[in-house]
Amino acid sequence: MKAILCILFLAVCSAVAGPIELIDGKYPRFFDFEDEDGVIHKVDLLEPVDMELLNDIQMNPANNQYQLFTRRNPTNHQTLRINDANSVRSSNFDARHPTIVISHGWLSNMKTNLNPVIRDVYLRRQETNVIVLDWRKLALAPYPTAARGVPDIGRGLGQFLDFLHRTTGAPYNTMHLIGFSLGGHVVGNAGRFLGGRVARITSLDPAGPLWSNNDQRVRPSDGVYVEAIHTNGGLAGLGIGSPVANVDFFPNGGKSQPGCYTPICDHNRAWEFFAATIPRNHLIGRQCANMNEVNRNNCNGASLPLGNIYLNKRGSGIFRVNTGRRYPF
């Protein structure tokens, strides 16, 4: 059963059996989550967190794994280890090139689809150090535990980037951190650890459940320029659905996407849209005065492209961009 069917089922049950327990005033306590392999996972947002795992994650940033890809090794990764300078010096990492970090979300790992897709479009476009963050040890835990540990994963990433900067001289103003879903909050926390000095942070449909009132979510001050792309932020959507960045894009209104029939498809569109803009820079948003204009599709403000590779991108406000149903949208 798809996640949206579960939510509809809960709504019907509430009419018969009484009100549903809502978390953050928006999300049902119990819902189904379909991963990209079509496997359904039961979520209880009030499930007790695994404190033993969280303590291990907090004390040991080496639980994060960092896999480097460059044009010299575009498909076979090299492992970089925090506080192991030789692992960096013996790799193909080149501080003269931009550094792109990609963070997956819940129930994912370095092999999840967004990682090779975004990696490949970057390496075809330019010489780049693409670093895939694999935080599967926490990401495979139940959702409340994974969500609670996101700030620690982000701080671990920040510590690694500080180590990389000190070891190689790689400047923060050539770093772009990209995260999807829970990973969208991971990269925010990494940028915060570094004092907001990284050039860009892109949060791809940052996770919604347990984050509406969470002060550890991604913020505009986490980088020099912070952008969020919201694609599934409707009622009980998987994304947060409200502005969190310097610039917030709401493709097609930010709730559901053309060609999608499940919430996970809508959710994944965020990274698919972003990847499509790396070679093309063709999805142009129009600034909106408020969310009513976003919803009504009558935004007439300034233009700004969604996504793209440029490290000096700047802007502020909320934007709507309308897309097609299929790649390149």
From TrEMBL:
Alphabetical list of InterPro entries matching this protein: AB_hydrolase_fold (IPR029058), Lipase (IPR013818), Lipase_N (IPR033906), TAG_lipase (IPR000734)
Location of this chain's protein in the cell: Secreted
Stretches assigned to the Lipase domain: 58-301
Transmembrane region(s): none
Signal peptide: 1-17
Primary subcellular site in the record, as a coarse category: secreted
One Pfam family this sequence matches: Lipase
Keywords: Secreted, Signal
Assigned protein family: Belongs to the AB hydrolase superfamily. Lipase family.
Listed name of the protein: Pancreatic lipase-related protein 2-like
UniProt source species: Bicyclus anynana
Species lineage: Eukaryota, Metazoa, Ecdysozoa, Arthropoda, Hexapoda
Gene behind the chain: LOC112045400
